[in-house]
Structure formats: C-alpha cells, structure tokens
Specification:
By secondary structure, this protein is of the alpha+beta class. It has helices at about 5-20, 95-105; strands at about 25, 30-35, 40, 50, 55-65, 65-70, 75, 85, 90. The protein has a three-stranded antiparallel beta sheet with strand order 3-2-5, with helices on one face. It has a two-stranded antiparallel ribbon with strand order 1-4. The protein starts with a helix and ends with a helix. It comes from Pseudomonas savastanoi pv. glycinea str. race 4.
Length: about 110
C-alpha cells in the first residue's frame, strides 16, 4: 500500500468517525438536553434526528415514560415493640429535562 493510499484511508476513517458522531436520535419516549462544554444550550430537544458538533456538543437523554421505583420491603419496630413491614414505591416522570439534568447533575 502506497503512502498516498494510506493517507487517503486514514482521512476517510477520520471523516467517517466525525460524520458518525455528528448525528443523534431522540426517540418518542425520551427527553433530551443539548450541552455545549457542559452547559445547557437547548433545554428540550424534540424527538427525531438531529445534528450536533462532535466533541463540542453532548446530548443527555432521559426516559420520559412513567417510571416506578420500588423500594425493598423493610421491617420496623413500633413503640409498642411490634414488627411492622413497610413496602414503599414511587412513580415519577421526567417532564422538564433541563430541570431534571441540573437537579441530578445528569445522573440516571
């Protein structure tokens, strides 16, 4: 393989990687925020195919469906020393992706 062919191959691979990282998809069930160097640029990205600048912009996606957090059953003692089994759960949904991202630092 000649030097010209090798350089062409390397440039082609680099351009393919940049093109691959330039597009992102937000599905109907997701909420997303677009970040530029860690700051929110676009608060609520609509579902569909979008373009971003690779390595400058990042996209954080969150599930927008109704989610359930089920805590394990725990045993507690009352003041009368009787055992009580407590089973708890929470149902929640992300409606404001920017507010959720800033409140949780983007943790899932």
């Amino acid at each position: 393989m000649s030097n010209k062919s090798l350089i062409t191959l390397i440039v082609g691979v680099v351009l393919a990687v940049i093109a691959w990282n330039s597009f992102y998809i937000v599905s109907q069930t997701e909420r997303a925020v677009l970040l530029q160097f860690g700051r929110v640029v676009q608060a609520d990205v609509q579902p569909g195919l979008h373009v971003k600048v690779p390595y400058v912009n990042q996209v954080r996606k969150f599930d927008g469906r109704l989610l359930t957090l089920d805590a394990p059953t725990q045993r507690f003692l009352t003041l009368e020393k009787k055992a009580v089994m407590v089973d708890a759960y929470a149902k929640w949904r992300v409606k404001d992706a920017e507010r959720f991202y800033t409140a949780t630092s983007g943790l899932k």
